[in-house]
Amino acid sequence: MNVVQCIRSDREKTYAYMHKKSSTGRGGDYKMHTHREYEVFVFLKGSARFVIEGNSYQLRPFDILVIRSSELHRVYYETEQEYERIVLHIAEDFFTRHHCGYYCRVFEDRTAGEQNLISGDTVKQAGIPELLERMERYIRQTSRREDAAVQAGIVELLHLLNQTLRQRSILPQRNENIQEVIQYINDHIGQAITLDQIAKEFFISKYHLCRIFKESTGFTVGNYIMNKRLLKVRALCGQGMRISYACYEAGFGSYSNFYKAYVKATGAAPRKDLK
């Protein structure tokens, strides 16, 4: 069962703040996924492991994960404890509106799946828990959706997160072979990629590759490639490229293949969703 402790977003949907509790860690859909926005995930209570692009982070109270839109991720629960977290989604428009584009570097200036975690000790030293308490107090004090105090708090949070960049020394648990496969896929996402081709490239049997890839990422090899291609189309369309061109650049081979994959993944036609 999920209990929402605190929630707020603005009318333009440049940010969404949510503080939630799940009674057993089973109160939602925790499949591997991405978001269109940047995500700040604050772990507060429970026993959980977070996987981002095949790298695994064991979470402790007040650990923070910073995740960009192209990073596939999900949480795994290891015991039936209460699960409490704060999730903040921040759209690119937020950085433009508040003239703080420089703060995107906490999400962008790193390899996908690496240096996502800021330790709870570092978070406490930065005063972030107190800042989050103030933000939630501001949210509860007013019903206005346009709350300047909350938005100012988000800017301050981004400032504090950026100050922690040099203090990140915690490395994720990772399978080096799978990381090399993921890098290979990302480097060749616009080309035809087959399971046989990957297995041959890394001198590994297809059966073993499929097994360890699913264990590490939560995806089959085929599903991972498909999701990365869909993300590539979204990114290219966001840069102004027409969908009919973007689907070829992302390796779909035809608009028909892309259309079927997009509808299957999202339930909507791409022209209704992509600009």
From TrEMBL:
Q: Which GO terms describe its molecular function?
A: DNA-binding transcription factor activity; sequence-specific DNA binding
Q: Which domain of life is it from?
A: Bacteria
Kindly state which keywords UniProt assigns to this record, in alphabetical order.
DNA-binding, Transcription, Transcription regulation
Q: Which residue ranges does the record assign to the HTH araC/xylS-type domain?
A: 179-275
What species is this protein from?
Ructibacterium gallinarum
InterPro entries hit by this protein: AraC-bd, Homeodomain-like_sf, HTH-like, HTH_AraC, RmlC-like_jellyroll
Q: What is this protein called?
A: Helix-turn-helix transcriptional regulator
